[in-house]
């Protein structure tokens, strides 16, 4: 439900769920069936120490079959530091810095899914490219915008979230319905503070996203954008 163009309400539907019941693409449309960029560096992208501060997370079943067999994450999550990650796509690599201090349960889930290969060889089914927002939505192996990992987890929001270019955030279908779907922001976007921000995208990654956006989309999503005119595929997500 990422429909934010004309109004904030529209946007909320846009990014809210690309699954229409499971995760979200950030817009009602994305589901419809349903950050400033931060360059990764050795100083800012350190893997958090295993013995550091932790928090307890809950990942209950969302009542749906997972799009791909996967185990729910461990409930104990690191709650400090940052974690480097890379999304390898057929257009190039997108470097990420995951913020475990601000969104420990979100990062814990993303890392767990990545390490289990959940995101490997999966499509990114929607490009939202309109005045007011620019995002690439990924994270559903089924490619329908309605698939997820079979579990959900609570929001990690301060109420002050913003979504500038370079932001990595979770898509959802409403409060506390986070799952596997996420979106990468390639243009400053005006969304309500309803989507967990859990990392940033490096400059090289933003260039890749700009190239992806340039292929265009079929404008099939009522909330804005639609399926890419050329397949966009996540080949692998690596942590570290």
Q: How would you summarize this macromolecular structure in one to three sentences?
A:
The chain has helices spanning 8-16, 28-31, 104-115, 203-214, and strands spanning 54-56, 76-78, 82-89, 92-99, 122-123, 126-130, 133-138, 167-170, 182-187, 197-201, 233-239.
Structure description:
The chain is an alpha+beta fold and 240 residues long. The chain has a single domain (8-239), classed as Cyclophilin-like (Cyclophilin, Beta Barrel), CATH 2.40.100.10. Helix content is 15%, strand content 24%. It contains four helices and eleven strands. It has helices at 8-16, 28-31, 104-115, 203-214, and strands at residues 54-56, 76-78, 82-89, 92-99, 122-123, 126-130, 133-138, 167-170, 182-187, 197-201, 233-239. A nine-stranded antiparallel beta sheet has the order 5-11-3-4-10-8-9-7-6, covered by helices on one side. The chain has a two-stranded antiparallel sheet with strand order 1-2. It is globular. It starts with 7 loop residues before the first helix and ends with a strand. Its EC number is 5.2.1.8. GO terms for molecular function: isomerase activity.
Helices and strands in order, then pairings?
Elements: H1 8-16, H2 28-31, E1 54-56, E2 76-78, E3 82-89, E4 92-99, H3 104-115, E5 122-123, E6 126-130, E7 133-138, E8 167-170, E9 182-187, E10 197-201, H4 203-214, E11 233-239
Antiparallel strand pairs: 1-2, 3-4, 3-11, 4-10, 5-11, 6-7, 7-9, 8-9, 8-10
Protein name: Peptidyl-prolyl cis-trans isomerase
Signal peptide: 1-19
Pfam families: Pro_isomerase
């Amino acid at each position: 439900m990422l429909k934010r163009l004309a109004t904030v309400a529209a946007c909320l539907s846009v990014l809210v769920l690309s699954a229409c019941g499971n995760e979200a693409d950030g817009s009602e449309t994305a589901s419809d069936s349903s950050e400033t960029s931060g360059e990764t560096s050795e100083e800012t992208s350190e893997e958090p120490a295993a013995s550091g501060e932790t928090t307890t997370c809950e990942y209950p079943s969302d009542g749906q079959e997972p799009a791909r067999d996967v185990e729910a994450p461990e409930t104990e999550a690191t709650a400090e530091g940052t974690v480097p990650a890379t999304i390898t796509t057929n257009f190039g690599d997108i470097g990420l810095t995951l913020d475990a201090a601000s969104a420990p349960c979100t990062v814990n889930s993303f890392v767990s899914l990545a390490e289990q290969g959940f995101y490997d060889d999966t499509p990114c089914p929607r490009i939202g490219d309109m005045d007011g927002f620019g995002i690439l939505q990924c994270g559903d192996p089924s490619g329908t915008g309605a698939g997820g990992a079979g579990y959900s987890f609570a929001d990690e929001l301060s109420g002050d979230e913003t979504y500038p270019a370079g932001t990595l955030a979770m898509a959802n279908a409403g409060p506390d319905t986070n799952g596997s779907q996420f979106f990468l922001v390639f243009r400053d976007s005006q969304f309500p503070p309803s989507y967990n921000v859990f990392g940033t995208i490096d400059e090289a990654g933003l260039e890749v996203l700009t190239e992806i956006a340039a292929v265009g989309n079929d404008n099939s999503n009522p909330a804005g954008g639609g399926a890419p005119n050329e397949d966009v595929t996540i080949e692998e997500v690596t942590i570290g």
